[in-house]
């Protein structure tokens, strides 16, 4: 584990501690409220409820897998935990991040499969058993993506002025560089691309069928799915924007220019990325109040 890192000013550490505490508190409240709502009888059998529950689990991993350690480290003005804790933080928070965007991609594909076959829209709003296997696959995919630092193929590194642990973004060996490119591609580029492509397909199909259909119930189903699609679109756009600065920092570090990044600039994208974990419920409520 790389223990060398630049330090923030005293004011910088105070700002990080306050913001990380805010994220932890706000994230806990929003995810708990969302969880309670999804357990209501009218939502239990909805087709996307398991996906939203998966996103809640992902957000909790991201929040509780890293922010308590970030808060303590910022108060102590540096990383005070051992290597095992560092590996735990990087693995758990990373798994949560990967599973969150992967689940969003699954949602867009699921909606597309619903809307592309108009005669069955009304009969397929309820949940089917195939989702369990798909979501288990998402979590297996996410865990496998974060395994290399635990197995010694690459390493964990302390970042954010000694307040967080992540995979080594500036590896000195070929296997480490390959892993960074693999993780960037599989955990960000591919899920975001899949989501974008299917959101466009869904929009095209829904617009076509709502204008052609005279069957009221089918038309209503398509309109409900349009609202869900809009909700997913805003969530994915926010996720993409929130994580883009961090992805850029990762690329800069990978090409050996980490020394040119100040600790403040390195810390800001990290906290912005974790903000995505508390905003999804607000997006759902604003876009789809029902």
TrEMBL record:
SUPFAM superfamilies: Family A G protein-coupled receptor-like
Domain G-protein coupled receptors family 1 profile: 30-284
Membrane topology per record: Multi-pass membrane protein
One GO term of the biological process aspect: phototransduction
InterPro entries referenced in this protein's UniProt entry, alphabetically: GPCR_opsins, GPCR_Rhodpsn, GPCR_Rhodpsn_7TM, Retinal_BS
Predominant localisation class: membrane
Keyword set includes Transmembrane: yes
Keyword hit for Transmembrane: yes
Membrane-spanning segments: 16-39, 51-76, 88-113, 134-158, 178-200, 232-255, 267-287
GO molecular function, one term: G protein-coupled receptor activity
Keyword entries, A-Z: Chromophore, G-protein coupled receptor, Membrane, Photoreceptor protein, Receptor, Retinal protein, Sensory transduction, Transducer, Transmembrane, Transmembrane helix
Any single GO CC term annotated in Swiss-Prot or TrEMBL for this entry: membrane
Subcellular location: Membrane
Gene3D superfamilies named in the record: Rhodopsin 7-helix transmembrane proteins
A Pfam short name: 7tm_1
PANTHER family: OPSIN (PTHR24240)
Protein name, per record: Melanopsin-B-like
Source organism of this protein record: Actinia tenebrosa
Lineage of the organism: Eukaryota, Metazoa, Cnidaria, Anthozoa, Hexacorallia
